[in-house]
C-alpha cells in the first residue's frame, strides 16, 4: 500500500524511530519518555537477576540430587527442592515454571559424580518474552527490542486497526533487529492474556486511563517470578476526587490529602494483590513511583497458597482526621505464633477513638491500601548504578536518575507521609526549615526521610503525638497570634508537650543527595508537558492547555486545508451574505 511520506513525521527516541501521521490517528505522548526510560532501566536489572535466580535454583537442585544419592531417600529430587523452597519462602522464578531441560536423554543416575549431576541441572534459560498489551505506535516495544540486551520476543497488541498498521509500519522502518524480535497483533489484550496463561516473563500495561479492566487477565499471563509493569493515569479517581468511583474500579476508597499520590500507588498495589490472590498468587513490589501525571508500579508475581495467607498483614485501613493532619493505619490482619505454628487472625480495632486525640475532630476512613514496602532497596540501588553507568542511552536520564535517587533515600517501610507546611498551616505558625524539623525528629530517637512523591513531604516512623509535641515546642519559641478556641490549632496548642524537642542540628538531617546538592526534583522540560488527547479525538481551541497554542493552531490549519473547496466557498458566501 503506497503512502505519502510528507504526511508523516519521524520521531526518534532512544535507538528507535517511528513514523507519526500528521493527524491524531495513533496515540503518542512525548512526556511518557520518562515512563519508557524507567521501564528499560527495570528490564535491564530484571534480566541478570532472573539469570542469577535460575542458576541458584539449578545449583540447589543439583545439591538435592547429590543428597538423594547419598541418603537413598524415596522422595523425588524435584519435589524435595520445590517443598524446601516454599517452606523457606524463597522467591525463585524457576518455581512452577517449565521443567528444566536436561543435557542428556537419560535421567540422573545416583552413581554419577556431583560435577556431572550439577551440569545436568544447569539448563540454558530462554530469553524473556515480553508482552506490551496496549502498544499504539509500538514505540515502547521497539525500544525494548533494540535497547535491552538479552530480551527475547516482544509481542505488541492493540485492538485498533490503525494502531496495528502503524506499529507494523514502524517495525519495518526500524530494520532487521525489530523485524526479528517484535510482532504486532490485532487483538483484545484481555482475551489474549487469558488465552496465554503463564506465558510471558514480562507484561507491560500502559493504558490511556485506568488499568483496572486488564488486571485480572494480566496477573494470569505472567510466569511465576515474572514482572508486571503497570501504569494508571486516572489520578483524579485514585487521589480522592471520586472516592466511590475509585472503590468500584480498585476496591479501595481514596482520600484527598498531601499524600494522595502515594496513596494512589498503594491503592493500585492492593488492587493487583487482590486479583492475584484469586489464583493463589501474590505480588512483591520492586519499584513504585508517582511522577508527572500518573503512577507506575513494577512488581513480581509468585504462586504460593501458603505465602498468599500473608496478604491481610500487608493491607491497612487509613484514619484521617478532618481537623488536623493526623492519620493512623490499622492493619487488616495479624498473626499469633505458638511453638512452630502460626495462626492468622483479624486485626484488632478500632485503632482510634471516635474523635481525634489531638484536635477533637472526627475521622475519615479510607482503604484498604498496601501498607507493606513499595520498593526493593537492592533493586533500586542496582537500577540507579546501571542508569548512571550508561547515561547516554537514556533520553530522560536527568529525570529518572533524580526519581531513583529520591526513592533510594526514602523510608521504604513507612506508609504515607506528612507535609511540614500543612502542619504549620493548622497551627498558623511560621514553618521551621526541613533541616531543623528533621533534626528534632532524629534527636527524639526516630527516623525521618523525604519522599519522591512530594518535595515538601516527610516520612517518619514517629507517632503523631511526638510530631505535635515537636511543633508545640517550636511554637513556644516562635509564638503565634491567638485563634478561636474551637479551632484545631488552638486545641493542639492548649496541651503541654510531653516531649521536650531538641532542635540542635543532627548529622543525618540531610540526605546524601542533599549534602552533595544533587538535583532531586526537576521542572518540566517544556510547556504543556502532560497528558495528551486520546487518539482520534478532534482537536479544538479548548485543548490549548493540553497541547499549546502552536500545536492547536497547526491542527486547525490542517483541518481547514482539508475541507472541500465547494464547502469553503459556500461558507464564505454565507458569511459575506450575513
UniProtKB/TrEMBL annotation:
CDD domains: AdoMet_MTases. GO terms for cellular component: nucleus. Coiled coil: none annotated. GO terms for molecular function: metal ion binding; tRNA (guanine(26)-N2)-dimethyltransferase activity; tRNA binding. InterPro entries: SAM-dependent_MTases_sf (IPR029063), Trm1 (IPR002905), tRNA_met_Trm1_C (IPR042296). Belongs to the class I-like SAM-binding methyltransferase superfamily. Trm1 family. Dimethylates a single guanine residue at position 26 of most tRNAs using S-adenosyl-L-methionine as donor of the methyl groups. This is tRNA (guanine(26)-N(2))-dimethyltransferase.
